[in-house]
Specification:
By secondary structure, this protein is an alpha/beta fold. Helices cover about 45% and strands about 10% of the residues. The chain has a 6-stranded parallel sheet, sandwiched between helices. The two termini are about 15 Å apart. The model has no long low-confidence stretch (mean pLDDT about 95).
Amino acid sequence: MNLRAVLLDIEGTTTPVAFVYETLFPYARARLKEYLAAHSEQPDAAADIARLRSEYAAECEAGLDPPAWNGDAASAADYLAWLMDADRKSTGLKAIQGRIWEEGYRSGQLYGVVYDDVPRALELWRAQGCVIAIFSSGSVLAQQLIFAHTNHGDLTPYLTAYFDTTTGAKRSPESYRRIAAALGFETSEMIFYSDAAEELDAARAAGMHTALCVREGDAPDNARHPVVREFLR
């Protein structure tokens, strides 16, 4: 393979799923109301809330039943918690989570976790001349924070670009074409690592090479993509 770029998912690929669900999500959830009450008038937070209002209206029109949102911080927090319970890939939710986590990282209450092989792999790929980018449903800010404050130090010098759901859905082939174009490569010159087969299906449909990360448990018997347990094996 003439690979020139590596594209990485985060959850279950570079970072344990448990860290996301047992540390990051509870941290943000416990601070939703406090954050919204303190920051709702600030430009960045106001833009995030406006995006959430559009998502909320679309869900109501689609016949879903989110909790009532009357405009105050408490009801907005209830809607965000509802999205979290449903594990929705809401761009507005991800943006607000990222801003809450930013405060946690800066205060020293949070630090990112990556698997032990990740720093070695990033170093090797860069030494081989590969561009390394991230594509996650978490916001670009959240991605940058995880890699800037890891249990292995600041890994952001190895990373060239970050992409989130503002680029497109992770199960849409068009998202991977956009990422390749943004990086200046053909999709055939890239490989995407993820623990989600449906995301890999989309990347392959766009022309990328793919690898299914199975960090824990047994690999599926009918895996549609090459299976890796560590990046360097």
